[in-house]
Amino acid sequence: MSSSSSSSSPILTSDQESQLVQFKEFTSYDESNEHDKVVRLLTVCNWNLEIAVARYFDNDFPTLFDDHPITPGTSSPPITIDQQQQQQQQQPINREIPLPPPQAIAFDHYPFLDLIPKLPKAIPIQNRWKNQVGLSTTNDKQLINKKMYTYLSPILFILALFPKLIYVLGIGLNKILGSFFPNLFKLLGLRDEPNDFPRKPQYLNKEEIESYDIKTYIDSIIGETTDIPIYKGLFNDAFNKSKTELKWMMCILINSECELSNKFIKSYLNNSQFIKFINDNNIILYIGDVMYPEPFEVGNCYNVLSLPYINLIANVSSTGTTFPLMSTVTKFQNFDNNLINKESFKKLIKRLQKIIDKYEPQLISQRFDQQETQFSRLIRQQQDDAYQESLLKDKLKKQKLKDEKLKLELLQKEEELIELLKIQKLKFLKLNSKKVLLNDDKPLVKGEYTTIQLRNHQGERIIKKFLKNQTLYDIFLFVECKNFIKQECESLKVSEIEFLETLNEDDYKLTEDESYEHQFKFDLVSPMPRMKLTPSKETLLKDVKELWPNGSLLIEMFEEEEEDDE
């Protein structure tokens, strides 16, 4: 049982397993999705492959059991073909309404169908011939070329006791029945025809196998390059191509060590009518030399008795009413050396064409069913692809909307943060501006402060006294607040005193949950020696020799700040 079958599937017998494998080979159904339906179909068809396969290729199979579950082991009573056709004519087909389950058809009108001889089954060859490559020896080749009287049958010993007349009678029987029972007469020592199928291939060395090219050999026999469309590949590859593409396959076996085979090549294969016959019927032509392992294995598999050998293989049945299988439709061997001529060639081609015309309608019908099945699967595949593409588009669309929403949220948060920083900066500057100016009213004792002269890029000069315990950060904060007050006064057109009166410390005090770290947009530089100060809250002014007991600083605005101001 296939591993893809569901756990709820019924347990099948070994015969049913075999039937299911054959059904898979014939239909190539989608085992992952259609396994349960196929088991139900085979159940209601009483495990009749011909009925089940025909029902499978109906257009309604995809919805066959969707709304009509069938219990395994039970089936509807059989109906005749006429009854089924009458039911189909009376009931119009509605694709939207699921059809009832299929019923097993009783072939009452074909009571002797099983008595009709079936065509011999054609099968691919085994790969055991590959194991023989490289095992060739000189003694093996000498044994092949010798007369094959290796073993004397006890029957031959008994016949030796009788008069010579019995032996002559055996030779006569060989001429009459030797083509039908060659192995029997070989066993009796009464037959050793050069056209018989050999006991083993002659060329087994790896180098000989690699140099094997039947087309080159045929051209060398004919004496010129021919247009014979010989299949370039192994027999099994040609066999599978014929099976899958529903084409005719012709297998021709020859013996390169036999004069009759060479005569056959010159008279039959080197004929424009033969090439036209192959091309017109789109036949896959396999030709092999039985002196090599693979063609020899083909001859063994198909019980070839005499060479040259021709057969026609196709996926057909003897009557057209039974299920088609790869079969040997016809075969020709036992060619007479005196009858290989143009007249016999015409008869052979006429016979082959007649056989092809007889069975070709079956292949045409199968090709049509195959195309219809492939088209249906293509439609389903396109529908699935379109559905998957639609899902993908919806997914991408949702993802795009999600990304746009996220981007918008991030932009809003960024704008809110910028606005919050502006508010916090305004609060910070207003709060510290009043504190800075209030310090100017306090009396200072000499030795407890330093006097610092500040000059900006516009040449304006400010002199400010700072306590020795104040830090570098306090100088930066003083400069920032002075610039802020100046800008606000110019904007409001008021004096510093009037602006400071509007400031209320409680109104601009930062709340506990607000953490704001002010960033200064300028540098303070000591000109001699040149030294750039940092707004450190730890460094006291008395510890900076450039600023104690007095000093001079230049205010250098950042370029970005200057551009923003402009």
UniProtKB/TrEMBL annotation:
GO terms for molecular function: ubiquitin binding. Residues 70-91 have a biased composition (Low complexity). Residues 67-96 are annotated as: Disordered. The chain crosses the membrane at residues 151-173. The keyword Oxidoreductase does not apply. CDD domains: UBA_TAP-C_like, UBX. GO terms for cellular component: endoplasmic reticulum. GO terms for biological process: ERAD pathway. Residues 445-554 form the UBX domain. Keywords: Membrane, Transmembrane, Transmembrane helix. It holds the Pfam family UBA_4. InterPro entries: Thioredoxin-like_sf, Ubiquitin-like_domsf, UBX_dom, UBX_domain-protein. This is UBX domain-containing protein. It comes from [Candida] arabinofermentans NRRL YB-2248.
